[in-house]
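Colleagues,

For the teaching module next term, I've prepared a clean inverse folding example: a structure given as tokens, and then the sequence designed for it. I'd like students to try predicting residues themselves before seeing the answer, so please don't circulate the second half yet.
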């Protein structure tokens, strides 16, 4: 694994916004990326979802725009590999990696949801085999190889790192076998994250692999005070945020969030990708800015 001082804190931007003016949602993503840059966060990511009736800003064009706001810290996007033609995906990643000033990270997963797969014309039952085939082809194309008569250009200026999302025993084993790193789900509590970390480390040992990154996504609100946390995050949690166990969420003051992040670092996680749970844009931006203080506390210990 790469040397680091403290767990790295990055941003995983929310891509869905219920807005009347679709330009507003896109603008909010740009503002959040700029706030993450100003806060000195360590990485920038966007997600992947398809056939959605509500505004969901697609990862490739959106990340291309966000890179104008970003710096030379790592960046990347999640791709649900079974939903993508591997040549098209490799071309998109090659171009994005050429635009990025820093290292590009390909996050990938098998995905889910019958409507999403049906909308893209993909048999959901073939997810595992499509994932493995797609990842193999994409990696070879990104390395400049000819794959069944297909080549891509540009190829990334440096090797693309692959983090595989997984949250069940078989997918976790696949992530250890095929991935450079592991991406744990946002809905894990500290206890379930600990259990899955054991599974992943055992799988890495079984396959003789040493991961480059142990990452976890977390939905977060960093408040100015405990009263602010209760006012902003309290109603969101009470409404059953995303169906998550409340223990999977990280909310609190700067000191409280740093303490919770430290617990995940002690489990062995090297990266935490933060998604803001606040709907209000000003609250989300303030929370992102406070992550700079969270980072400072973590790096001071």
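(Answer key — instructors only)
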């Amino acid at each position: 694994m790469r040397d680091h001082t403290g767990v790295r804190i990055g941003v995983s931007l929310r891509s869905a916004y219920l807005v009347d003016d679709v330009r507003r949602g896109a603008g909010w993503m740009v503002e959040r990326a700029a706030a993450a840059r100003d806060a000195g966060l360590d990485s920038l990511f966007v997600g992947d979802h398809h056939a959605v009736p509500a505004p969901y800003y697609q990862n490739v064009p959106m990340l291309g725009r966000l890179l104008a706001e970003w710096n030379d810290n790592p960046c990347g996007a999640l791709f649900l590999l079974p939903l993508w033609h591997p040549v098209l995906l490799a071309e998109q990643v090659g171009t994005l990696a050429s635009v990025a000033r820093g290292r590009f990270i390909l996050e990938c997963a098998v995905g889910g949801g019958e409507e999403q797969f049906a909308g893209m014309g993909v048999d959901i039952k073939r997810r595992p085999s499509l994932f493995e085939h797609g990842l193999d082809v994409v990696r070879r194309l990104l390395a400049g190889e000819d794959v069944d008569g297909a080549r891509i250009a540009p190829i990334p200026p440096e090797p693309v790192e692959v983090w595989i999302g997984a949250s069940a025993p078989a997918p976790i084993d696949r992530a250890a076998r095929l991935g450079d790193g592991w991406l744990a789900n946002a809905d894990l509590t500290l206890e379930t994250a600990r259990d899955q970390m054991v599974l992943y480390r055992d799988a890495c040992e079984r396959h003789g692999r040493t991961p480059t990154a142990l990452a976890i996504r977390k939905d977060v609100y960093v408040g100015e005070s405990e009263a602010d946390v209760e006012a902003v995050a309290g109603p969101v949690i009470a409404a059953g945020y995303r169906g998550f166990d409340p223990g999977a969420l990280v909310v609190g003051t700067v000191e409280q969030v740093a303490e919770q992040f430290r617990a995940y670092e002690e489990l062995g996680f090297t990266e935490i990708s933060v998604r803001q749970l606040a709907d209000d844009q000003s609250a989300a931006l303030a929370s992102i800015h406070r992550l700079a203080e969270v980072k400072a506390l973590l790096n001071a210990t």
